Amino acid sequence: MPEQLPAPGSRPTLEAVAARAGVSRATASRVVNGAEGVRTHVADKVREAIRDLGYVPNQAARTLVTRRTGAVAVIIAEPEVRIFSDPFFSRQIRGISKELTAHDTQLVLLLVEDRGDYDRIERYLAGGHVDGALAFSLHTDDPLPSITRRIGMPTVYGGRPGWTAGSGEDGVEYVDADNRGGAREAVRYLLDQGRRRIAHIAGPLDQTSATDRLDGYRDVLPDGDPALIAEGDFTTAGGARAMAELLDRGPRPDAVFAANDLMATGALKVLRERGLAVPRDVAVVGFDDAEPVAEAADPPLTTVRQDIEGMGRLMARLLLRALAAEPQGAHGLPGSVITPTALVRRASA
Questions:
Q1: Quick check: pTM over 0.85?
Q2: Mean pLDDT per 10-residue run, the chain (349 residues)?
Q3: I need a surface site. Which of 6, 23, 97, 100 has the fewest CB within 10 A?
């Protein structure tokens, strides 16, 4: 019987693939869906037929068979203006995207503009549109962990759990940097440079990354002056406001450790406006090493580097492992991961 080829302009079918490979439709389906039990040389013939015909599986039909969508939600608990102005988010999304793409999985980005968006996000997640979720930049009172737990959505978090009752939950998987250790290294470095009035511009204290960095600062300066601590919001404008507040309180600090690079650049701007030279009068250290912010700062910023893109990839790997129902420890990955940090010295300190 002559081989049945798809009509010009039509979409190749699974039946056409099976005919081309000389196998049954059931065998072709098992190869397409990644099932086991097909001999290697037979599977190779099916894959060759798929390439020759340009066959693309029908995702809706495939979902009915596998109960998987091949998509993952990435949920960022910040407004759009913050996400697209802070390079931290683009680098983390890039890492996530690279890992998901390598595993033929689609990324669906969900943003939280205000509290009302959580109803929409819960409906979307519960509707079976994605297989799992990656969430980061959560705040203490964030409802997302309760939502994902209630609907049974596999989830990996970016950042140490700090939401209400979150840190006591068993099985919560997350990826974070050594925020506390990196902060300690930054403050010790400033002390080694002879600085004695070291101020800290903290991030929003309803996020664990900010509280951990504040704790690291206090580890090194347990008897420090509380007036040398000002809270920012991880934005350039927030860093500028906090720096102005520190200078207006007096006496002037001779060094500043800011909890991220954007706030450090805001501090640099205010110091220039006040006629203070960096690092001669005031040394400045940031956190992130977020390109191009740190290198483009004036002067270039000494900062604590965290592997933001690598953290995104690790989050995706942990979730993919969970979706494959593999145990913790598979592929050498523990339940959660704390990645190392390193001080990068430039001209600001």
A1: no
A2: 52 86 87 80 90 73 58 94 92 96 94 90 94 94 92 94 57 92 98 97 96 98 96 97 96 97 98 98 96 92 97 96 74 79 97
A3: 6
313 backbone dihedrals φ, ψ, rounded to 5°: -65, -40
Q: How many CA atoms lie within 13 A of 187 on its CB side?
A: 25
- Contacts of residue 79, defined as CB under 8 A and 6 or more positions apart, other chains included, come to 111, 112, 113, 114
Omega cis (within 30) before 299: yes
Q: Cβ–Cβ contacts within 10 Å for residue 53, how many?
A: 18
To which H or E segment does residue 158 belong? Answer: strand 155-158
**Do 5 and 30 contact (CB within 8 A), yes or no?**
no
Kindly compute the dihedral angle of the four CA atoms of residues 27, 30, 35, 36, in this order, to the nearest 10 degrees. Answer: 0
Q: Which residue intervals of 109-260 are DSSP H helices?
A: 117-126, 144-151, 179-192, 208-220, 236-249
**Polymer length in residues for the chain:** 349
Peptide bond before residue 154 is cis, with ω within 30 degrees of 0? no
HSE-CB for 336 with a 13 A CA cutoff: 19
Amino acid 336: pLDDT: 87
